[in-house]
Amino acid sequence: MRVVVTADTHLRRDWPNRRLPAAALRWLARADVILHAGDITQAEHLERFGGFAPVHAVLGNNDRELVGALPETLELTLAGVRIGMIHDSGQARGRSRRLSTRFPDADLVVFGHSHVPVDAPGEGDQRLFNPGSPTERRRMPHRTIGVLDLAEGEILDARIEVVDD
User: Is the pTM of this model over 0.90?
Assistant: First the structure.
């Protein structure tokens, strides 16, 4: 199963020049499932993602219009891999312990908020994954998106893809 992971897209109708890069759209077109770790901002953008593949999303701190429509955290299983999702995982120091406590049964925890890509081991066998942002690189050198390949309860591949075009 190909899972495309994104966060912090910050798409807004009052910012008409903000768009997803073509490379991000190409990845979304190849997704079996999309995970959005918050800050999509408006329902029409969530619907647009849903035109590519089924979407699972959590509420970000800039998702004021989606309060009540999206959960703050989400736990789901895809291809046998148990996944926890949250937008803001807090500061880097102590993150793995906090996320392990919040999602004790998760094999993978997906988060966003910082715009900093992360693919790192967590507590025990848990893996922590932040796709960065495809629209706002902030202090990072590139705009990014995450790609996961899952099968039979295993994370076969997890990578951060540059989507600068």
Answer: yes
